[in-house]
Fold:
Amino acid sequence: MKRLYILLELLKTYDLTYGEYAIFGSAPLVITGMIKDVNDLDVIIRPSAWNFDGDGEYRTNNIEFFDNWPGFDVDDLIDNHTFEFKGVLFVYPEKVIEYKRKLNRIKDQGLF
Structure:
């Protein structure tokens, strides 16, 4: 969980408005103890809150920002499927698991 805390501090440097974004991906699984730590953060942002160029993605080495998430409505996820941890909204693990099951990636098999 150490890396997650470091990445959350880095996320604060982007000065995003609370309620306009949430953490998706593996980070919610770390918070609930399902996995030990993360490599990066996947952040969903309301399309109206950040002007993305091109394909709705902005990637750094440590944080990936998206104004969409395959199979989900970003506004609905942020409004109805999040919990707060350390002042940041995280998507409920159930939604993350739903997504990871659909992907059926080798790296995620055995987690659920």
Q: What stands out?
A: Strands lie at 21-24, 41-45, 57-59, 63-66, 82-85, 88-91.
